[in-house]
Design brief:
single chain; mainly alpha; 20 helices; globular
């Protein structure tokens, strides 16, 4: 372990941890820029290659399947090789395939599987790469933020969902109008290379190994933590069998699976909904399509603060539940209201508020992963996020089916119901439990 040098032993803590959190936010924003770009370019691709709504649903869900399947392996890779290296390789991987989306119709895959499946397989590869981001981001938060700031630390990188979602519709729509839809994918790929370099050269797996961290900041990070390093017993105690057999983990995964369905409605169909159902122009859709993500960017840090404050007031079990219930209850209410309002502006604002309160609730899941397994939050977060993204994998396809068969109001109502059920599943979650301590 590299201790800070004598000159850095100031009574005032350095601020490296906040810069690391800011880089996490940028990485998360990139994941959502690359996740949403196909949704925004979807209308152009559908028109050019005559791809129907149902087929587009499968293309959109291909990303989510790859993303979900790689969550747990990515968490364990982070445990073995460190989140710094794993995230660096992952960014380069998904950026390469994001750029390759532009040439998907010309790849040999088209001759073997058809145009739609060529797009789907490239998106599946992007999902595999992005699958490493969130479990390893959660592990970075566990290492770099003190026990009292787990909600706030997670809310910072989760706010990147809102940042990426806010900038993506406008930036991608402007790029497509100026240079065509293919250029938007090339630019996304190039941006990823720069962000990967910044991440690799600045971040360390452990705060004590960073030359910019002084003794005061290191003490603040370690204050209140269960221990500064996992014991030998802890390091072998967490297995997938233990994770699956714990009722709190089961509740965490179940609830995140249900809320993942509603979240992916915003990630996949929302922009196309504005164009096809609300009949907005491409640029209007770009502007209004960013509103749920702007709400997420604003509400997610508030949710992190409320989650941590609620833990102080009510304890971890009731505090995490309370913050999640507030967010999920309001998200479901706004989804229901927005789905039945005829005017475009009020409907979109209500639906955007639904997305914002999903972000508000989101931090409590990720903070609970660290509560339950402080030194092995990466694999646990991967398991939870795998569930959330399996729900997300179903979302584009089932949303398209319900919307086609019963109308878009019914599709949005169904998402509101899954959000309420996610709140019910939180009754199973007890964030007071420490899985590692139980094994000792």
């Amino acid at each position: 372990m590299n201790l800070p040098d004598a000159g850095s032993r100031s009574s005032h803590p350095s601020h490296v941890r906040w810069r690391v959190m800011a880089l996490l936010l940028v990485v998360t924003a990139l994941t959502f820029l690359d996740r949403l770009n196909l949704s925004i370019a979807g209308k152009f691709i559908q028109d050019e290659f005559h791809i129907g709504t149902q087929s587009m649903g499968w293309i959109l869900s291909a990303f989510v399947l790859g993303y979900a399947l790689f969550q747990v392996p990515a968490g364990w890779l982070g445990e073995k090789y460190g989140p710094r290296s794993v995230v660096t390789v992952a960014i380069l991987w998904w950026s390469l395939f994001s750029a390759a989306t532009a040439i998907a119709p010309r790849l040999p895959l088209r001759h073997w599987f058809g145009t739609a499946w060529s797009f789907a397989l490239v998106r599946f590869a992007i999902g595999l790469g992005e699958g490493a981001a969130f479990p390893n981001a959660n592990k970075i938060v566990a290492s770099w933020m003190g026990a009292a700031h787990r909600g706030v630390g997670n809310s910072i990188f989760l706010a990147g969902i809102g940042l990426g979602g806010t900038t993506a519709p406008m930036a991608i729509a402007w790029t497509m109008n100026r240079w065509g839809w293919r250029m938007s994918f090339y630019l996304c790929g190039a941006l990823g290379v720069f962000i990967a370099a910044a991440w690799h050269f600045y971040v360390t797996d452990n705060p004590a190994d960073h030359p910019g961290v002084n003794a005061a900041e290191l003490a603040r990070i370690q204050a209140g933590s269960e221990s500064t390093a996992p014991s030998s017993t802890t390091s072998t105690s967490i297995s997938l069998v233990r994770l699956f057999s714990n009722s709190s983990v089961a509740g965490l995964v179940l609830s995140f699976t249900l809320v993942g369905y509603a979240s992916y409605l915003y990630y996949t169909w929302f922009y196309l909904y504005l164009l096809q159902v609300r009949h907005l122009s491409v640029m209007q859709g770009g502007a209004w399509g960013s509103t749920p993500f702007l709400a997420m960017m604003l509400m997610t840090p508030l949710g992190g603060w409320v989650s941590d404050a609620s833990v102080v007031r009510f304890g971890r079990r009731r505090g995490r539940r309370f913050a999640a219930w507030v967010g999920l209850g309001l998200a479901s209410t706004f989804l229901l209201l927005g789905s039945h309002v005829e005017g475009n502006s009020p409907a979109i604002v209500l639906l955007a508020m639904g997305g914002g309160f999903l972000g508000f609730a989101n931090t409590s899941w990720w903070a609970a992963c660290i509560d339950l397994a402080p030194h092995h939050s990466g694999p646990l977060a991967g398991l939870m996020n795998m569930g959330g993204n399996l729900g997300g994998w179903i979302s584009p396809v089932l949303t398209a089916y319900i919307a086609t068969r019963f109308g878009w109001s019914s599709a949005l109502d169904f998402a509101a119901v899954t959000t309420l059920l996610a709140g019910v599943a939180w009754f199973m979650v007890d964030a007071d439990i420490n899985l590692e301590a139980q094994a000792c």
